[in-house]
Design goal:
The structure holds 2 protein chains of 2 kinds.
Chain A (H helix, E strand, L loop, with lengths): L2 H32 L6 H19 L2 H22 L9 H23 L15 E4 L2 E4 H23 L1 H11 L1 H6 L4 H23 L10 H15 L4 H29 L2 H26 L11
Antiparallel strand pairs in A: 1-2
Chain B lengths: L2 H11 L1 H24 L2 H26 L8 H16 L5 H23 L5 H20 L9 E2 L5 E2 L2 E2 L3 H24 L1 H11 L1 H7 L3 H27 L1 E2 L6 H14 L6 H19 L4 H14 L3 H6 L7 H5 L29 E11 L2 E12 L3 E5 L6 H9 L6 E6 L2 E2 L5 H6 L2 E4 L11 H13 L13 H14 L14 H14 L4 E5 L7 H14 L4 E5 L3 H7 L2 E6 L2 E6 L1 H6 L1 H8 L4
Parallel strand pairs in B: 7-12, 7-13, 10-11, 11-12
Antiparallel strand pairs in B: 1-4, 2-3, 5-6, 5-8, 8-9, 13-14
The chains are: A mainly alpha, B alpha/beta.
InterPro entries (chain B): AAA+_ATPase, ABC_AA/LPS_Transport, ABC_transp_permease, ABC_transporter-like_ATP-bd, BCA_ABC_TP_C, LivM-like, P-loop_NTPase
Keywords (chain B): ATP-binding, Cell membrane, Membrane, Nucleotide-binding, Transmembrane, Transmembrane helix, Transport
GO molecular function (chain B): ATP binding
Chain lengths: 306, 603
């Protein structure tokens, strides 16, 4: 394992981390503020990727696709909220799990009907097709864009939540939901906006992931489950926790998958290392989650309440 | 209501559910015989799938329906069961008993380990963690290339049990049906036994269960492990049905389908999982025959089920809501032989013996919330035979004090000593078993249980050893007799078989007191027992408390001054967490400091 490979893998890990943060930001707010289990968040990611691919192929411009995607995802999230999710706000978690599980099946089948069962390929935009050289390392320019875009959105989220009126209402709603309603704020609209915003962020994650990973039916669930691990580690409802935990999970998962098999090869026979390596690597983030829970059941950065 | 009319009512409420259950179980026996005789292989395979998945659903129902734990990772245990057959078979071991033993051990240990972590949390976190653990094992099996990895592993040989091979369709069905019937009967026994009462109670009102002295975590974990093991058995059968093992058997989609079965069938009902499995798989087959894209209909149908109803098929069969949770939950205890209202034994002829005297000493107690001092260097004493009342304006820290004494709130400083033993850091349930019990300002009972069942739980907590899985509690005189005695004491014996949720407010307060008394306390902490009571009810309660004075060390927090001054031997006045006076009622009445505190003379 050369140092260069290590740096590249660490960058790949950070890149997975920012994608996870885009997913986690919307989801953790919905969990924390509305106490709502939304399993269909992964479907928003998948729909975002498919719609972006379709727009990209139709218009021929990655940037135009990105601009058009945002309002479409906003509308999709808000419509979904009005039709199905808003009926389940006050129900217990089981009903929410059940309904959003049904929605996953629906969206997966919808995507299969619209775009077919085989993966759709999205090209890396031409301007970013090359590689960037630094410290003797060649790294694909597009992947750097993903990293930068993710960090930019994270900054935007921070500013939105901590320095705007909407963000103040969101934070107030997270701890004192009834009181915010009593003060005359339109909680229903706030909720619909929240779902819309979450859908946009998930859609952007889908767009960014499109050229790197393959766009296919069922792509939303693996990342949804990773996102949940992130949220549990970071502390439910905490944007800051989601940010740090995303990066931790992204890096641990990516480095684990590359470093661990190599490490085990030095410790045991090659044939058994080749079996044990990937198996243990795939368990790492879950073990991390279990350790965090054992030490701090509220997560690393719990939301301050009361 | 006379005995005969209550039986009549029971017959009116029950017939549909009973008939349907009987018919469905009979069909489970008759249809496969027909399918075998006429060579309908597909029908037999479908029925086997229904029965095997119903076993897994029964397992999930135990934690989800009865225990209220939303596990979104139960496919993990189904998958482990499948591999418990497939991996040994791959190595040439086809002994069915061995497969079962491996499945039970693997699922039991995995359930214990994952449950111990996941049950530290509740709500959303629990759902996500169970899902994440299942996903973890999914990826482990994906990366186990010697056993097929993602592509899966063919079952090399069927499990052999007593000379039979489970892959033979008729044999597999018969074995699965026996397991299902055993699981259904086992659930029926378990939920009405001591263990099941605690499990169900913890779903309804965990705080009350802890206050009664039950370490609820252990019961949840035990239920989770039992459920995991039963799911593993279903997995071994499933491997023989599909003759294949793949990581997808433990995927989130499978876990979701198990939840759909349980909810569709009716959560927390005995027969629900079987109805749900049958309804879901038959719907699936019907939709598949219409279109390849059947999920486009199936998905929204699940959403509709979630939005529409919680009670599922079993709930619909049991009749309109409120027909009694006992109807969907467990066989309700038989009415007592004698009509309880006619039982005119005097209250002091009860069997309850005088408890050992107790002494509670509190010294230097401090509790801060940020800058607010809720308890300010407070000291007081309680002794058997006297009532110590604590009064003070709203926000004086009275409930915070009781919370610290009962163990729900941890003090920042100070000591709480019961009979010379420092209990300051002991958990709620341990204090409760030492004889320190409380009532809540807002009534805390188990509304879905009958009045008698509420009190039975309290008696059970006191007797310990509640890990009993078979004998129905309602048939145990060692539980029933003290429970009925406690109900008689508070005057609720006529309502023993009424669901606690439909009692009037004052009666619910009395019930809570009966639960506390049935726990054989020595120290009673009563947080506003008269709150919201009518004048007549308050007078009854006052009379009852004055009778209890002899037996217990009593701490009374109360706003009803008439009651306080007639009952208390000593009164402490709290203002802003500080005790400004502690003296006899007569002295308190005269104290100018107390008067100014109450009349707002602070300026």
């Amino acid at each position: 394992m050369s140092f260069n490979l290590f740096v590249i893998q660490a960058l790949n890990g950070l890149q997975l981390g920012v994608l996870l943060f885009l997913m986690a930001a919307g989801l953790t707010l919905v969990f924390g503020i509305m106490n709502f289990v939304n399993l269909a968040h992964g479907s928003m990611y998948m729909m975002g990727a498919f719609i972006a691919a379709a727009l990209y192929n139709y218009t021929g411009s990655f940037w135009l696709a990105a601009v058009l995607l945002a309002p479409i995802m906003m509308a999709l999230g808000m419509v979904l909220d009005r039709i199905a999710l808003s009926r389940l706000y006050d129900r217990d978690h089981l009903d929410q799990v059940l309904a959003t599980f049904g929605l996953i099946l629906f969206f997966n089948e919808l995507a299969r009907m619209l775009w077919g069962p085989s993966p759709v390929y999205m090209e890396v935009p031409e301007a970013l097709g090359g590689a960037v050289q630094f410290f003797g390392i060649r790294y694909p320019a597009y992947r750097l864009l993903v990293l930068a875009a993710g960090l930019l959105v994270a900054l935007g989220c921070y500013l939105l939540v901590h320095h705007t009126r909407l963000g103040m209402l969101l934070r107030a709603g997270a701890t004192h939901r009834d009181m915010v309603g009593a003060l005359g704020v339109n909680i229903r609209l706030l909720n619909a906006l929240l779902f819309g915003l979450g859908a946009v962020l998930a859609g952007v994650a889908g767009l960014l992931a499109g050229p790197v990973m393959s766009v296919q039916v069922g792509m939303g669930e693996p990342i949804l489950i990773l996102t949940m691990v992130v949220i549990v580690i970071g502390g439910i409802g905490s944007i800051r926790g989601a940010f740090y935990a995303s990066l931790i999970v992204g890096v641990v998962d990516t480095l684990g998958r590359t470093l661990l098999p190599a490490l085990l090869r030095g410790l045991m026979e090659r044939s058994s290392a080749d079996i044990a390596g990937p198996a243990i690597a795939s368990m790492m983030i879950y073990i991390l989650m279990a350790v965090v829970l054992a030490l701090r059941p509220q997560g690393l950065f719990p939301v301050q309440r009361g | 209501m006379t005995h005969a009319s209550s039986l009549h009512a029971a017959r009116r409420r029950w017939p549909l559910a009973r008939w349907v259950a009987g018919i469905v179980l009979a069909l489970c026996v008759v249809l496969p015989v027909y399918a075998l005789a006429t060579g309908h292989a597909f029908m037999l395979a479908l029925m086997t799938r229904i029965v095997v998945l119903a076993i897994a659903a029964v397992a999930l129902n135990l934690v989800l329906g009865f225990g209220g734990m939303v596990s979104f990772g139960h496919a993990l245990f189904l998958g482990l069961g499948v591999y418990s057959a497939a991996i040994p078979a791959f190595h040439g071991l086809d002994n069915g008993l061995l497969h079962l033993l491996i499945a039970l051990a693997a699922c039991g240990l995995t359930g214990l380990a994952t449950g111990a972590v996941a049950l530290r949390t509740q709500g959303i976190a629990f759902i996500m963690i169970t899902l994440a653990f299942a996903q973890m094992f999914y990826f482990v099996f994906v990366s186990l290339s010697p056993y097929g990895g993602d592509d899966g592993l063919r079952l090399a040989a069927g499990s052999r049990l007593a000379g039979l091979t489970l892959t033979q369709p008729g044999v597999l069905y018969a074995v699965a049906l026996v397991v299902l019937f055993a699981a259904l009967y086992g659930t029926r026994r378990l939920v009405a036994a001591r263990f099941g009462m605690v499990l169900r109670g913890a779903r309804i009102n965990e705080r009350r269960m802890l206050a009664l002295g039950f370490p609820t975590f252990r019961y949840r974990l035990a239920a989770y492990v039992i459920s995991a093991m039963l799911c593993g058995v279903a997995g071994v059968l499933y491997a023989n049905l599909t003759q294949f093992a793949a990581p997808s058997y433990m995927s989130w989609a499978m876990s979701g389908e198990l939840i759909v079965m349980v909810v569709l069938g009716g959560m927390g009902s005995i027969m629900g999982p079987l109805y749900g499995a049958a309804a879901m798989l038959l719907t699936e087959e019907a939709l598949k025959s219409i279109t390849d894209h059947w999920m486009i209909i199936f998905g929204p149908a699940i959403v509709a089920v979630a939005v529409a109803s919680r009670r599922g098929i079993a709930g619909l069969l049991a009749g309109p809501a409120g027909a009694g949770t006992a109807a969907t939950a467990a066989p309700s205890p038989a009415p007592p032989d004698a009509a309880p209202g006619n039982d005119a034994r005097p209250a002091d002829a009860r069997s309850t013996a005088q408890p050992a005297p107790a002494r509670l000493e509190v010294s230097g107690l401090v509790k801060r919330y940020g800058g607010l001092l809720a308890t300010d260097n407070l000291s007081l004493e309680l002794e058997t035979g006297s009532i110590h009342a604590v009064i003070g304006p709203n926000g004086a820290g009275k409930s915070t004090l009781i919370g610290q004494l009962s163990g729900e709130i941890e003090p920042d400083a100070g000591r709480i000593v019961l009979d010379g033993r420092d209990i300051t850091r002991l958990p709620v349930h341990t204090r409760s078993l030492l004889g320190l019990m409380r009532s809540y300002q807002i009534t805390s009972i188990l509304p879905e249980f009958t009045v008698l069942e509420n009190v039975l739980l309290a008696v059970q907590a006191r007797q310990g050893h509640s890990f009993r899985f078979w004998q129905p509690v309602a048939q145990q005189p060692q539980l029933r007799d003290p429970a009925l005695a406690a109900l008689r004491e508070v005057g609720l014996d006529a309502h023993a078989h009424t669901p606690a949720g439909v009692l009037a407010h004052g009666q619910q307060r009395q019930l809570e007191l009966a639960m506390v008394l049935a726990g054989e306390p020595r120290v009673l902490l009563l947080d506003e027992p008269m709150a919201g009571m009518s004048q007549a009810e308050s007078q009854q309660m006052t009379a009852l408390l004055s009778r209890l004075r002899k037996r217990y060390a009593l701490l009374l927090v109360e706003h009803d001054m008439e009651a306080v001054f007639s009952l208390a031997d000593r009164i402490s006045v709290l203002v802003y967490g500080r005790c400004i006076a502690s003296a006899s009622p007569a002295e308190i009445r005269r104290s100018p400091e107390v008067q100014s505190a109450y009349l707002g003379d602070e300026a």
